[in-house]
Task: structure prediction
Amino acid sequence: MVQGCVLCGATGAEVMSERDRHGKPLVTVLCPGCGVVRNDPVPSEAELTEFYRRDYRQEYKGAAEPRLRQVWRNLDRLNRHFAEFGDIYGKGGDWLDLGSGSGEFTFLAGRIGARVTAVEPNEGYAEYCRAKLDLTVTTGRMEDCGFAPASFDLIRLSHVLEHMRDPLASLGTLKGWLRPGGVIYIEVPDIEADARNKLRGRLFHYGHIYNYNPVTLRHAAGLAGLVELPQTAARSAGRCSGFFTAGEGGTAGAEALAANAERMRAAMAAHNARTLPEPAEGTAAGRFFRTLAARLREARAGARLKTHRAIAEAAAGELRQVLARG
Result:
């Protein structure tokens, strides 16, 4: 049954796909009012709790714990992110890593002096973090947390919002956990970019309930009473990510939302008609050689460091040097 849109109130919806990325039945619809793409129906809380507790990481990543190359890749990407936004992360304080996954952010944040609370819904990944990285991680979903108001200076929500069945209510709760002047970092997959860069039929996933592009992400944050942090907005422009703080005025107007819906409709039509995906940047040959070079670097790092913890410690050392240089 098609449901009304939580972002714009539109009651209509257009079916974009009836299968998930593995070929299993999954109806995905586009809102004609704003362009957000979501599963229909939205799963219940009970269904999501069971899915994330046991099935999600194995189904989504294909393994009960991250491979060495995945750990290296995650840490390399995070080091670049920390360096780009060192003015934000350099302030330290009490941080919440909600949906901490394989723990790389929590590990690095602790090594640069932040006091991090980590929460991960999947039992296997939470245990991996405790056993392999010696992290303190609570197993559970946001709905299981009872943090007091104004508990955190920074909340990280990386590849988490797309999994929330009521994103506005969830963001409102998180805003209440922020201290005055605190920030929430939100990052989600960009469905518009993925429609260009992924193979036809490889887009949708049961766990990705809401699929955003940069317009709908910022509109959702605005509806929850969050605005993009002025000092980072230019650096995050065009990305499906950003730092947000409590404030009014972050929503898009009806005309901008309608234009976004038309753009997303065209993006999905092009995806469904395309035989081969477009490379994210450069040419297909260039992408092949960049990927090959990255795999060789990952293999060398794994051969030299051999364990997840050793790779994490090496990355933390590199990060401290980068931040010290300013």
